[in-house]
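Pasting as-is:
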Amino acid sequence: MKKVIINFSKLKKGGGQNVALNFLHGVNHYKKAELVFFVAKNSEAHNYLKNTGGWDYHVFPNNPIFCAIYELAFSFSNLKKINPDVIYTYFGYSLFYFSSVPQVTGSADSNLYFPEIDFWKDESFLRRCAKFLIDKYRIFGLKKSTAVIFENLELMNRAQYLYGLKKVYYIKPSIVKHIRADSSSVALSLREPSAINLLLLCGWQRNKGILIIPYLLKLASNENIPFNVILTAGEPRCSVGREFVDLVKRLGVDEYVNIVQPVSKAALPSVYNSVDAVLLLSKLESFSNNIIEAWAYKVPLIVADESWSRSICGEAAVYANRDNSQDIFDKIMLIQNNQEYRSKVISCGCDHLASYPSINQRINEELDYVLQLSQ
């Protein structure tokens, strides 16, 4: 039986960890290969494997620089002992430089495929320089990979055109909804019965459109319509987080914002069930778990009006200008006041979700493809 390394060491936070947990919850049935897992230290995937037991896994450093060094050292010694037939990395390329094992990678860095968009323009000079080098490395990884798997058809087509990738594969994402739910979600205790409760399930990233939220709340306050925003970004220790906190205080809307820690997978059902709408205001995304989760939990999704979102969502979302707080406000009020339209959006989401594979179907398809590329 062939041996496949499933490399989750790149998934340290955010939606990527949900992807890893979805995979781990559904992979028990796959018997066509022996699986070995690489995980980042103290990630959710690491904790799951440690607590579950019975899995062969190796722990990599959480720090990206230390991880890259560890990959080089690992490929020189430990990788030979494992003797895999193929490595499948979620998401990105690993520096297993001293190994000739085929490496299949998943790609979710949407900015690489839209060079016409100055994605890092709002960052500091030093941060833009760092991001430039990181993006160059990611492009290098795409070209070095044996094959690249995409969750977004538009991104796959652009990758072939921009970087001349020969072996690419498209597969829709999946969701694992029915797991043991944690009903003690912090979101439930924060719910205001008289308010319109909005969820931003994301980290401190400018791309997510977080900095428009204070202006949205100010507008709602001026209209005497209470909004309550649950933002799952955790402590605002970065520049974006500090800027957000300063802005809500300056506009006098901090009482309408609930900044909570990133939500565990078990808490997702109660979080989604406690809100009236989900906001996804990203300029670019490869794919977002927010989309299929909103469909699965039957919560209206208000998404940035961009080509990436329209190609995924169709009529299963409400589109808003991510740079215009008035337009976002109007779309929120539309789904609140027009129950027929609200029901239609939710129904379209259910129809879209039905076209997506189950976790078992997705795992079968992607691992069967990966095995085809093994040594």
